[in-house]
Design a protein that fits this description.
Keywords: Cobalamin biosynthesis, Glycosyltransferase, Transferase
Shape: globular
CATH topology of the largest domain: Rossmann fold
Organism: Rubrivivax gelatinosus (Rhodocyclus gelatinosus)
EC number: 2.4.2.21
Distance between the termini: 54 Å
InterPro entries: Nict_dMeBzImd_PRibTrfase, Nict_dMeBzImd_PRibTrfase_bact, Nict_dMeBzImd_PRibTrfase_N, Nict_dMeBzImd_PRibTrfase_sf
Strand order of the largest sheet: 3-2-1-4-5-6
CATH architecture of the largest domain: 3-Layer(aba) Sandwich
CATH superfamily of the largest domain: Nicotinate-nucleotide-dimethylbenzimidazole phosphoribosyltransferase (CobT), large domain
Structural class: alpha/beta
Number of strands: 6
Helix content: 40-55%
Largest sheet: 6 strands, parallel
Function: Catalyzes the synthesis of alpha-ribazole-5'-phosphate from nicotinate mononucleotide (NAMN) and 5,6-dimethylbenzimidazole (DMB).
Strand content: 5-15%
Order of helices and strands: HHEHHEEHEHHHHEHEHHH
Length: 342
């Protein structure tokens, strides 16, 4: 698949926006990362006066065959139950989306069961749960390609110019850790962690299972091959969504470990996508901070989160909105008739 992602590096535009920021009524650089986000926003949109329009928070949901190996503290049926909870407005992300005025959609990318039609739910299955990657590829090549195409098509029809990533899928820290190990070459012990709350014995079991999955697919070394063999339906769908969002010059707000796995695969396919991504937070999940460093990404906040669901993306949203308004509305020294530094 070919995604035409623009080069977000524009030195002339960057210089003009930086000059505007430097002329605001403050010491230069005193708003720190907020100024950097404002500059990034301008580069992503390709204009001096960027605007954040109709932000869309999308929960990519899917099930994973590797859950049968006991790698999660929760049973697989919790995926379906939590999707219903989100649609009913009772999940943490439902509360945060309401608080911050974020449009919330749950995208069924490959939940094992089918859902009845419901407001806020979009069916986009590439499969009914992935296969167990310790015994077979998680997705067939056709399923993986369909998932990417589904994610791209969904974003093309989505309003607004901001995509906030969330996910739901019991055991999905396992495919995320597998992708990290395969894409980075790190040992699985440096990539996988407690997930939903495993005890030390549970973590040791999880590591052994994940090593078996890696050993089962030694030839899956390209980004697409690794995604099919080791990933999952919601991660693959997110890959397509991220690539399409970047191609459309939409800002992508990344949540935690699982959404980072999708962005990392997308960046392995097309490195320019990283220019469109704001990484919201550093997860408490083992490996996330290390992966962010390898991607050259710096998270906005570190709140010890490991919930997923897009919760970190939603919590970081006010900071991103503040960057837009600082650039748009803060007075300059000249317009406010304030003396600048000598």
């Amino acid at each position: 698949m070919n995604f035409s992602v623009p080069d977000f590096q524009d030195p002339q535009l960057a210089a003009r926006v930086q000059h505007r920021l430097d002329q605001k009524t403050k010491p230069q650089g005193s708003l720190g990362r907020i100024e950097a986000i404002a500059l990034q926003m301008a580069l992503v949109q390709g204009r001096e006066n960027p605007r954040l329009e109709s932000p869309q928070l999308v929960i990519f949901a899917g099930d994973h065959g590797i859950a049968a190996q006991g790698v999660s503290a929760f049973p697989q049926e919790v995926t379906v139950q939590m999707v219903h909870n989100m649609l009913a407005g009772g999940a943490a992300i439902s509360v945060l989306a309401r608080q911050h005025g974020l449009a919330l959609t749950v995208l069924d990318c490959g939940v094992k069961e089918d859902f009845a039609p419901a407001p806020g739910l979009v069916a986009s299955k590439c499969c009914h749960g992935s296969a167990d990657s310790t015994v077979a590829p998680a997705l067939t090549d056709a399923q993986c390609e369909a998932a990417i195409a589904n994610g791209a098509a969904f974003v093309r029809d989505l309003p607004g110019n901001v995509l906030l990533l969330g996910e739901m899928g019991i055991a999905n820290t396992s495919p995320a850790a597998l992708l990290m190990a395969r894409l980075t070459g790190l040992a699985i012990e440096q990539c996988a962690g407690r997930g939903t709350g495993l005890d030390p014995a549970g973590v040791a079991h999880k590591l052994a299972v994940l090593q078996r999955a890696l050993d089962r697919h030694p030839g899956a070394t390209t980004p697409m091959a690794a995604l099919a063999a080791l990933g999952g339906p919601e991660i693959a769908t997110m890959v397509g969504a991220v690539l399409q969002a970047a191609a459309l010059r939409r800002l992508v707000v990344v949540d935690g470990f699982i959404t980072t796995s999708a962005v990392a695969v997308a960046a392995a396919i097309e490195p320019r996508v990283l220019g469109a991504c704001v990484f919201s937070h550093g997860s408490a999940e083992n490996g996330h901070g290390r992966w962010l460093q390898l991607l050259g990404a710096r998270p906005l906040v570190d709140l010890g989160l490991r919930l997923g669901e897009g919760s970190g993306a939603a919590l970081a949203w006010p900071l991103i909105k503040s960057a837009e308004l600082i650039l748009a509305e803060m007075a300059s020294f000249e317009s406010a008739q304030v003396s600048s530094a000598a």
